[in-house]
TrEMBL record:
Its EC number is 4.2.1.17. It comes from Mesorhizobium plurifarium. This is enoyl-CoA hydratase. Pfam families: ECH_1 (PF00378). One of its GO terms (molecular function) is enoyl-CoA hydratase activity. Could possibly oxidize fatty acids using specific components. GO terms for biological process: fatty acid beta-oxidation. Coiled coil: none annotated. Keywords: Fatty acid metabolism, Isomerase, Lipid metabolism, Lyase. Belongs to the enoyl-CoA hydratase/isomerase family. The keyword Lyase applies. It catalyses: a 4-saturated-(3S)-3-hydroxyacyl-CoA = a (3E)-enoyl-CoA + H2O; a (3S)-3-hydroxyacyl-CoA = a (2E)-enoyl-CoA + H2O. PROSITE patterns: ENOYL_COA_HYDRATASE. It is an enzyme of class 4 (lyase).
C-alpha cells in the first residue's frame, strides 16, 4: 500500500509510523485514519515485527481531528458513519504500540496517543482536549481514557476548560510514562520498542492483554485472568529458554514458540 499522510519504516524488529501532514499539524482526517490503521495492522501481522512506535513531528504529534473535515458534518452524517469509530481498530492491535509525542497532542491527537499502550513525551509536548472551545466535546475516547489516566478532577479540568497540560504535568499525573529531551524522542521510543521486541512475543502480547484487562474488569476477575495467562506461558519453549538462560548466566534466545 502507498501512503500519503504517513511515513512507514522498519527499524530492526520495530515498525515506525510517522504522521506526516505538516501543513495541517498532522490533523487527523479519514485518510490518516485509514492509513495508520492499515500500517499498524500490517505490522501486527508481520512475524518479523515485535513492537511499534507511532510519532508525529517535533511541532505536533497531532493537533486534533481535522476541523475542516468535520465542520460541515450534520448529526445524521456523524451518527450514520459512526464518525471516527475506525480508530478503535488501533486498540485491537495485539503487539505493543508506543506513542512518541512531541509538540501538540490535542483533541483527537491526545486521544490517539492514549489509544497506544504507553506514551513517551518530548519535553515540549502539550496535551489537551480543546473540543469544548469548538462547541463539541471529546469523541475519540478523551472523556473515558483521560479520566482513567489522570483521574476525575484533572480530566474534568482538561475537558471543561480546554487548557493544555505540559510534559512535566503529564508525567506527574500519569498520562505519560517518561519525558525525554525532544531531540532524543524518536531514538528513545525506538530503543524502548526494540527492547520489547527482544522478548518472547507471546509473553509480550499476553502482558499487554492483561494490563489492558485492568481497565475492563473487576480486580478479582483481572487477577484470575492474569494467573491463567501466567500459567499458560509454561507451555512455551520460551519459558524454558528464558529461565535456563538465567540459571546458565547467558542471554536467552527466544523463538516465540
Ligand atoms: C485542521 C488544523 C488543525 C486541526 C491546525 N490546523 N490544527 N487544521 N484541523 N485540528 C491547521 C491550521 O488551520 C493551519 O492551516 C495550520 O494547521 C497551522 O496551524 P496554526 O493554527 O497556524 O498554527 P499555530 O498558530 O502554531 O497554532 C497551533 C495550535 C492551533 C495551537 C495547535 O493550530 C490549534 O489550536 N489547532 C486546533 C486544535 C484543536 O482544537 N484540536 C481539537 C480538534 S477537535 P492554514 O491552512 O490556516 O495554514 C477534535 C475532536 C476529536 O480533535 C473527536 C473526533 C471524533
Amino acid at each position: 500500500m502507498t501512503y500519503e499522510t504517513i511515513l512507514v519504516e522498519t527499524r530492526g524488529k520495530v515498525g515506525l509510523i510517522t504522521l506526516n501532514r505538516p501543513k495541517a499539524l498532522n490533523a487527523l482526517n479519514s485518510q490518516v485514519l485509514a492509513e495508520v490503521v492499515a500500517a499498524a495492522s500490517a505490522f501486527n501481522a508481520d512475524p518479523a515485527i515485535g513492537a511499534m512506535v507511532l510519532t508525529g513531528s517535533e511541532k505536533a504529534f497531532a493537533a486534533g481531528a481535522d476541523i475542516k473535515e468535520m465542520q460541515a458534518l450534520s448529526f445524521a452524517d456523524a451518527y450514520s458513519q459512526d464518525f471516527f469509530v475506525g480508530w478503535e481498530e488501533l486498540t485491537r492491535t495485539r503487539k505493543p504500540i508506543i506513542a512518541a509525542v512531541a509538540g501538540y497532542a490535542l483533541g483527537g491527537g491526545c486521544e490517539l496517543a492514549m489509544m497506544c499502550d504507553f506514551i513517551i513525551a518530548g519535553d515540549n509536548a502539550k496535551f489537551g482536549q480543546p473540543e469544548i472551545t469548538l462547541g463539541v466535546m471529546p469523541g475519540m475516547g478523551g472523556s473515558q481514557r483521560l479520566t482513567r489516566f489522570v483521574g476525575k478532577s484533572k480530566a474534568m479540568d482538561m475537558c471543561l476548560t480546554g487548557r493544555m497540560m505540559d510534559a512535566a504535568e503529564a508525567e506527574r499525573s500519569g498520562l505519560v510514562s517518561r519525558v525525554v529531551p525532544v531531540a532524543e524522542l524518536t531514538e528513545e521510543a525506538l530503543k524502548a520498542a526494540a527492547k520489547i521486541a527482544e522478548f518472547s512475543l507471546p509473553s509480550v502480547m499476553m502482558t499487554k492483554e492483561a494490563v489492558n484487562r485492568a481497565y475492563e474488569t473487576t480486580l478479582a476477575e483481572g487477577l484470575r485472568f492474569e494467573r491463567r495467562l501466567f500459567h499458560s506461558l509454561f507451555a512455551l519453549d520460551d519459558q524454558k529458554e528464558g529461565m535456563a538462560a538465567f540459571v546458565e548466566k547467558r542471554k536467552p534466545n527466544f523463538t516465540n514458540r
